[in-house]
Amino acid sequence: DTEVTQTPKHLVMGMTNKKSLKCEQHMGHRAMYWYKQKAKKPPELMFVYSYEKLSINESVPSRFSPECPNSSLLNLHLHALQPEDSALYLCASSQDVRASYEQYFGPGTRLTVT
Amino acid sequence: AQTVTQSQPEMSVQEAETVTLSCTYDTSESNYYLFWYKQPPSRQMILVIRQEAYKQQNATENRFSVNFQKAAKSFSLKISDSQLGDTAMYFCAFMKQITASKLTFGTGTRLQVTL
Does the structure show a pLDDT above 80 at A62? Predict the structure, then answer.
């Protein structure tokens, strides 16, 4: 099973809402990632978790709050977002954070902030 | 900081033909990895091919091969016998060979394979 799943597929939320994105993998990977991808742009790294610990935070605003409850699950909690946060949010996982290990991407959650 | 440049925003190729996508990068690192990722319309991004900088031999994966020129900092992707399923956005990416580094993507090349 080489699948990374993400839920929901689509999410529309108001600027005062609180919502969460979920990512799951059952490949035994110990590194998990959140990326943000705007239309017709490349993905931009937001967070990296390694062995369930936050390893990289790319200076992401605090209205985005990641959580890694266990080695298979990664959440992204959203609060007080802005319309410019509308984007495709991609989750990825790899066996390890080292570059030699392939990152497997999920299909993404398309987020619209109104 | 690393930068990755893809100078071809869009390309088109006929089915069964060969196409080459260009990528250049800038880094002061000596050990790193280079990747080509494919993102089909509304589908998951997948790794097409990867190259370790210390390996002189160009990587190949079936119809996909790279031309890695380390001194020129160039990493082009050649797709042979193009198929309709190759239609996608292709991203070139760079990653340092250290623990917990980040993938730096180029701006992408949109490839359309036509009949």
Answer: yes
